[in-house]
Specification:
It contains eight helices and six strands. It is an alpha+beta fold. The protein is elongated. The mean pLDDT is 86. Pfam families: PORR.
Length: 247
């Protein structure tokens, strides 16, 4: 009904769609419509004034959505549009984080459920925003390629807030303290490395490309951590399988 220009359909045309509706004879189409009075509303309109129907002066029965159902459908459409914008921004940010500004669709499929992308995102979402990205053919298969850079989206997550140490006397610590989860014990060299790692200046993965850093440098590792943090921030549950990241 929503796909029709005037959002209604005559019953005699709807009866030809029994197989699509899984409504086989002898089940009545009218009884099915009357079974949902809060959704469907039958009404009549006159037959078109054409020579072939000149003898049919009686009105034809049609069906449309009730006012409440039409209002709910409009709200759902607006919600879908807003969600589509949010999901498109996620893909846009992923492309800006990627090294070559493109990602294979076959690889995105693995991460799509964690990002909240619909199953048909390759056919719909990837083609509904040509100003942001486009699908291109590569030697490895179809890929999603960045079209435009968005400075408003190219902003890293804010740094983690400082935590309270819950000390009896509020004074500076004599030794630096590393915050670890309960049960995690690290050797002294690793702790010293992480303390040095935390003291480094934050790296914005959008502004600093991976090619500008040495592959095995601590700065490159800092950027990799920032990229993973950005990806996890886009996921629905703020977590994903490690295999999805290694793809």
């Amino acid at each position: 009904l929503l796909s029709k220009p005037k959002h209604y359909i005559p019953i005699h045309i709807l009866s030809k769609c029994r197989a699509y509706l899984s409504l086989h004879k002898p089940r009545s189409l009218i009884s099915m419509i009357h079974r949902y009075p809060s959704i469907f509303e039958p009404f009549t309109i006159p037959w078109p004034a054409v020579p072939l129907n000149a003898t049919k002066l009686y009105p034809q029965l049609c069906v449309r959505l009730t006012l409440a159902a039409a209002t709910l459908a409009a709200e759902e459409l607006n919600l879908q549009y807003s969600i589509s914008t949010v999901l498109a921004n996620k893909l846009h940010k992923l492309l800006m984080l990627s090294s070559h500004r493109r990602l294979l669709l076959a690889k995105l499929v693995h991460l799509a459920p964690d990002l909240g992308l619909p199953p048909n995102f390759r056919a719909r979402l990837c083609n509904d925003h040509p100003d942001k990205f486009k699908i291109v053919n590569t030697s490895y298969g179809c890929a999603l390629e960045l079209v435009s850079w968005d400075t408003d989206l190219a902003k890293a997550l804010p740094p983690r807030e400082s935590y309270s140490r819950d000390l009896i006397v509020d004074r500076p610590l004599k030794f630096k303290q590393l915050r670890l989860r309960n049960g995690l014990n690290l050797k002294r060299p690793h702790q010293e490395f992480l303390l040095k790692f935390e003291e480094m200046q934050e790296v914005c993965p959008y502004n600093i490309p991976a090619e500008s850093l040495a592959k095995e440098s601590i700065e490159a590792e800092k950027r990799c951590c920032a990229v993973i943090r950005e990806v996890l921030g886009m996921t629905v549950e703020k977590r994903t399988l490690i295999n999805h990241l290694t793809h």
